[in-house]
Amino acid sequence: MRVIERIEDLRAACDIERAAGRSIGLVPTMGYFHSGHRSLMRNAREGTDFVVVTLFVNPMQFGPDEDLDAYPRDIAGDLAAATEERADVLFMPSVSEMYPLGPQKTTVGVSSLTEGLCGRARPHHFDGVTTVVTKLFNIVGPSAAYFGRKDFQQLAVLRWMVRDLDLPVEVIGCPLIRENDGLAMSSRNAYLSSEERAAAPALFASLVEATEVMRDGERDSAVVEKLVSDAIGKNSLLDIEYVEVCDALTLQRLDEIDGEVVIALAAGAGRARLIDNVVLRVDGLLVEADLGMRIGLDPSE
Ligand code: PAF
Q: What stretches in the chain show pLDDT beneath 70?
């Protein structure tokens, strides 16, 4: 694996691969790799010829009171993990390499989908994400880019951006990876105290409960949202920010559950802000749920 820090070196390496007819898979990350990141890298390895993993803690997507400085980092661990997952390149630019003129005057923004859910508490976050991802697309020229379904809103926003701007890249959503007790994997789980860590699987449990009542026929979003909120609210260490049933494509809140929907939630747990979701396909009485995959367990369990 080659470690690259300069944009022009990455561009040159990718130009050579494309000229040789090899497809490029891009895995954008902010590092502190866990099994979720590794699964993105594996998907890219299976789906494309040349895998570029990027590690950049992007200041543009953090608000002034957010955890930019505290964001967990482990460069040695990340180098080892990306090597094990057979990435071809690990791109680790500095902030001045990505933003040489300071804050960008040109940004990429997606309206509507970014305004609800996490966008309410993090008003500029998604502009930071879509801008940096567009820059990475322009530098790398990937045929496919891999993102986890845990960040469901981010995935929906990036898909919309690619369609709106006719970007020649396929956005591939990869499974949400969970710990064995159901907690969605996230670099920010490192912030949890042992008590908060013990409480956090309640988020997943509430989504399982919501899926069950929907399988029993419940189609009223308000009822499902209340059930999830009440289940989480029983735990004093979890502070609910939102629970919402939305259309999976537009992220607009639904009154009545039908078609492809997402139940998305965010909750505070001490210093950590946790998000989770379940995606459901509802067709009459049929409910198909994608609750993600737990590490170490058979996907069918
Ligand atoms: O999901 C993340 O880690 C980040 O939002 C991303 C996509 C790497 C952009 O900085």
A: 296-301
